[in-house]
Description:
The protein has helices at 2-29, 399-432, and strands at residues 39-50, 53-65, 73-75, 82-85, 90-93, 95-96, 104-105, 110-112, 118-119, 125-126, 132-137, 151-152, 167-175, 183-191, 197-206, 212-219, 228-237, 247-252, 257-260, 268-277, 280-290, 297-300, 306-312, 320-325, 330-335, 340-345, 348-350, 358-360, 364-366, 375-377, 386-389, 391-393. By secondary structure, it is mainly beta. The chain has three domains: 2-66 and 396-432, no CATH class; 73-160 and 319-393, no CATH class; 167-312, Tick-borne Encephalitis virus Glycoprotein, domain 1. It starts with a helix and ends with a helix. It is found in: Bacterial flagellum basal body.
Amino acid sequence: MSLFNSLATAVSGMNAQGRAIANISDNVANSQTTGYKRLDTNFEDMVVNAGTGRFTGGVVANTVATNDVQGTISQVDNPLAMAISGRGFFSVARPIASASGETDFDSRAMFTRAGDFRMNSEGYLQNGSGDVLRGWSVDPATGRPDATRLSPIRIDRASLPPAPTEAVTLSANLPAGAATGTRGSTQAQVYDQLGNLHPLDLGWARGADDNSWTLAVTRPAPGGGQAAELGTFTVNFGTNGAPAGTIGEVLDGAGNTVGRFDPANPANALLNVTGNFGGTDQAIDIDLGRFGSTQGVTQYGGAAYELRSVSRDGGPAGAVASVSTQADGKVVVNYDNGESRTVAQVPVVSFADPDALERLDGQAFAATQEAGRQQVSAIGANGTGTLQAGAVEGANVDIAAEFSKLIVAQRAYSANTKLVTTADELLQETVNLKR
């Protein structure tokens, strides 16, 4: 009976080593697969007990996942590629066939470390296995992500409409001690509702008071005609307790107070004007900086009016030029007019036991009860890994180590075959006792 047990034990050893060789083959075959996680093998002794006796039971090979073992990260020339360094997975959705022509997705949540994403023909960010990246949508008005739900990230490739100018910011120094009537001017360019540029003149003139200047905001007429005055303001420096040389008060053309220095309520000197640009009235704020601060317009010593900077918001229409990802997980659309918009943010999904995830085709995984509850976090939060943009994570397979394990498995398999032939010879000798 023990010879038959030995024969069965040797066969179980052959099966176990065959399983190990199969895992090694899988690892070697996928050594260049992005985000692949190797499969290791451990062996478990099987014992058959019969009362106080013990009979050989054999061995069982168990496959062990290495989902939490980091692979090598390499930089690539794909601006949409991402690699996680540390714990966590990308959340992805798998497209399925749809009769309507629109892309439908498998309802099962999937996870992957394969971050070789590219934008497909429908605007989805899809990796080499065909899975679509999921993330948090971003409110275009506030720029804040909606962290309550994950959805497939889709890039809208429509043109960006023109944005009319709503504010012009001026930083300059008016010369203290200048003679009455001393002038200085700056011309800003503002956008109308259709994205066309128009000049806007900001002209300064020294008043009778040493610390008072008049600002006239005008729109030059096309073709050199009479300029249209949009507003006149008086700017007083060092008044109402403001430090010398800083704006203390602003009055409109009728002498009404527009704003003044108040240390308890810091505010900017905003002058509102309305002009006709492109056939429609357009309100624009002229930002002279904070009351009582050196930020913006000041009155310090100098020989002449000194412009530091002038800027404005708004812009012309723009077409999508490129899409890129950032280290904080933001997906940014860049337009050819210089504008950019954050359209989504990529979080990281982590599990208590990632090795217990169900393995799927395409380097993807599915959640299981043994893996624990999924936790969706921002990049780097709650112990999750960091993100490297423009990079991919390779397979965590060391070919040299796999071949070393292959040699051991091959020798063990051969040894078990010898046990089979030896047991067979002994059984034959037992049969020959009948002669």
